[in-house]
Amino acid sequence: MNTTTTPQAALVIGAGDATGGAIAKRFALGGLRTCAVRRSREKLQPLIDEIHQLGAEGFAFACDARKEAEVMQLVEEIEQTIAPIEVLVFNIGANVPCSILEETARKYFKIWEMACFSAFLVGREVAKRMVLRERGTIIFTGATAGIRGSANFAAFAGAKHALRALAQSMARELGPRHIHVAHVIIDGAIDTDFIRDTFPERYALKEQDGILNPEHIAENYWHLHQQPRDAWTHELDLRPWVEHW
């Protein structure tokens, strides 16, 4: 839980137009200097403009989180020029369906790189700084695929299962060193352009609160960061009321 007035940074890897952007805005409104990251810095400008219009601090960074050197440079730059990283949110998806009969080795590996390997790289670099300060929050965005693999999602399920295992291991190692590591399972459709255009029948449930609102997801991430250490949540699953358990 944040109990200091010293400037602090929130690093959001995968600050896209929906969930990632909403998370970045929520932490910025919470008073953290929010560093939003995508591979394209130009795509972040609308989000940064919105954060500034809200009277908060936001910064855009371009980084391919699969590249170790780029991740190391990113974390060091933020630590040196923005503020110590108090919160890391890893929010890269890589939800790409494909039959196992047609999946290629190249694409399978790429999905793992995006959804798991990059989480390891960023998590490691941020954790190195956090343990020295004996404080911090690391949150990984998981998915239904992290607990059960569906047909045609072998690569995504494998990567998300691995991400969940990474989060569990980090939590057991870093918890005693005062670092809160959490894994959030997003178990349902999110209000995004992708769902609207690809699954219109599901998107029609929006008016009934049948799909996840990115701002409500972000509020849960903020709550995780605010938890006192005697009652930390490691795994949180979020789903609309219409989803099956």
Please, could you describe this protein's structure?
With 245 residues, this protein is of the alpha/beta class. Helix 5 links the parallel strand 5 (137-143) and strand 6 (180-186). The protein has a single domain, classed as 3-Layer(aba) Sandwich (Rossmann fold). It has helices at residues 19-29, 45-53, 68-81, 105-133, 154-174, 193-198, 200-203, 214-226; strands spanning 9-13, 33-38, 58-62, 85-90, 137-143, 180-186, 235-238. It has eight helices and seven strands. It has a seven-stranded parallel β-sheet, with helices on both faces.
Which structural class matches the secondary elements? alpha/beta
For the biggest β-sheet, the strand order reads 3-2-1-4-5-6-7
Question: What's the mean pLDDT score?
Answer: 95
Biggest sheet record: 7 strands, parallel
Low-confidence stretches: none
CATH superfamily: NAD(P)-binding Rossmann-like Domain
CATH class reads Alpha Beta
Q: What is the name of the CATH architecture?
A: 3-Layer(aba) Sandwich
SS strand fraction: 15-25%
Number of helices: 8
Domain count: the total is: 1
Quickly describe the structure.
This protein has 245 residues and is of the alpha/beta class. Helices cover 44% and strands 16% of the residues.
What is the element layout, followed by pairings?
Blueprint: E1 9-13, H1 19-29, E2 33-38, H2 45-53, E3 58-62, H3 68-81, E4 85-90, H4 105-133, E5 137-143, H5 154-174, E6 180-186, H6 193-198, H7 200-203, H8 214-226, E7 235-238
Parallel strand pairs: 1-2, 1-4, 2-3, 4-5, 5-6, 6-7
Helix pairs in contact: 1-8, 3-4, 4-5
